């Protein structure tokens, strides 16, 4: 069976379902014939946005709930075939300013979710959204899954813990779990209100508004970027495969790009904006990890996944989306 055909009539729960990746995944699953339920707390600074499911409101269910509530999660996991576990606090800077909230959402709530699955629906399959931030400052590049994990911020520590709870529950209780360690994901439906959830969205907003993009240092830091449709495809492949159970996989981009070249490309596509190099703020310099990009060889070998959207194409789609819909995101 084709992995896309697998989802017809499947019952799917997505935590963080009104957020950036969750909503793009939800729309794709609905189109594939799945019965989708979204869980989202709609905390203003975390990215949940009802406009992200515009046109799909009558084709899926939305439950406004917080993954930190164990009673809600126990009720919600019942009867589901798959859980795409995307709820999280993703701001590295916020995790340093408010470490206990990050701990609650990215670590403790993950245990609540897994306990709910273990007691209420042990047959469910769970795909977790990890992050390459778990690795910290690279000792070699590209990062592979065997690279030592030594996070440089609280968010990375808690995401690492959340991921390993999933792996432990597979080993101890036979829950079918897996983790995809995401790199810099970009595309439509991303949070654009502030700059604490990644640099790509903020660069795009500044360019669309015709403003100046500040880049720290000399702008030569290398990053890999992965378009959201490619990330969605990785989740779909993982959810449909038993070969991923109990395992972790990196996602990655096609070619690493410097932040300076990325900003130049965004400005070229948007037709507006400018660049200014600025000194590193101390709070950001302390948690910066230098050049970083990931190897996706393992998931390519296991599931046949690779990124297919080139950077110019992906950024063009993203910029056009916000030029049209900015009122729902600014």
Q: Can you tell me the residue ranges where pLDDT is under 50 for at least 5 consecutive residues? A: none
CATH class of the domain at 5-191 and 226-252 and 295-309 reads Alpha Beta
Main pleated-sheet profile: 7 strands, parallel
Name the CATH superfamily classification of the domain at 5-191 and 226-252 and 295-309. Answer: NAD(P)-binding Rossmann-like Domain
Beta-strand residue percentage? 15-25%
Name the helix and strand elements from N-terminus to C-terminus, one letter apiece: EHEEHEHHEHEEHEEEHEEHEHHH
What is the CATH third-level topology name of the domain at 5-191 and 226-252 and 295-309? Rossmann fold
With strands numbered from the N-terminus, the spatial order across the biggest sheet is 3-2-1-4-5-6-11
* Secondary-structure arrangement, i.e. CATH architecture of the domain at 5-191 and 226-252 and 295-309: 3-Layer(aba) Sandwich
**Structural class from helices and strands?**
alpha/beta
DSSP strand count: 13
Looking at the structure, what is the overall shape? globular
Mind telling me the C-alpha Rg? Answer: 19 Å
- The overall pLDDT average reads 94
Helix content, binned percent: 25-40%
The number of helices is: 11
How far apart the termini lie comes to 42 Å
């Amino acid at each position: 069976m084709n992995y896309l055909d697998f989802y017809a009539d499947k019952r799917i729960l997505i935590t963080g379902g009104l957020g950036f990746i969750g909503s793009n995944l939800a729309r794709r699953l609905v189109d594939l014939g799945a019965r989708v339920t979204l869980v989202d707390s709609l905390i203003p600074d975390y990215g949940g946005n009802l406009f992200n499911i515009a046109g799909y409101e009558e084709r899926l269910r939305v439950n406004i709930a917080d993954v930190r509530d164990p009673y809600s999660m126990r009720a919600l996991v019942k009867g589901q075939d798959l859980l795409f576990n995307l709820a999280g606090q993703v701001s590295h800077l916020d995790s340093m300013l408010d470490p206990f909230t990050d701990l609650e959402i990215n670590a403790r709530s993950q245990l609540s979710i897994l306990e709910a699955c273990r007691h209420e629906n042990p047959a469910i399959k769970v795909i977790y959204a990890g992050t390459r931030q778990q690795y910290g400052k690279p000792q070699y590049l590209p990062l592979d899954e065997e690279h030592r994990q030594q996070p440089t911020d609280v968010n990375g520590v808690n995401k690492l813990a959340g991921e390993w709870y999933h792996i432990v529950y597979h080993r101890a209780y036979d829950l079918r779990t897996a983790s995809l360690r995401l790199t810099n994901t970009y595309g439509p439906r991303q949070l654009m209100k502030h700059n604490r959830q990644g640099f790509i969205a903020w660069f795009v907003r500044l360019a669309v508004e015709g403003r100046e993009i500040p880049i720290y240092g000399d702008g030569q830091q290398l990053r890999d970027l992965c378009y959201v449709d490619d990330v969605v495809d990785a989740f779909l492949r993982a959810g449909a495969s038993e070969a991923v159970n109990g395992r972790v996989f990196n996602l990655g981009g096609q070619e690493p790009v410097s932040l300076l070249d990325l900003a130049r490309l965004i400005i070229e596509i948007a037709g507006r904006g400018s660049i200014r190099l600025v000194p590193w703020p101390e709070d950001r310099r302390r948690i910066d990890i230098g050049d970083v990009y990931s190897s996706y060889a393992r998931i390519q070998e296991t599931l046949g996944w690779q990124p297919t959207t080139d950077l110019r194409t992906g950024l063009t789609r993203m910029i056009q989306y916000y030029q049209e819909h900015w009122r729902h995101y600014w």
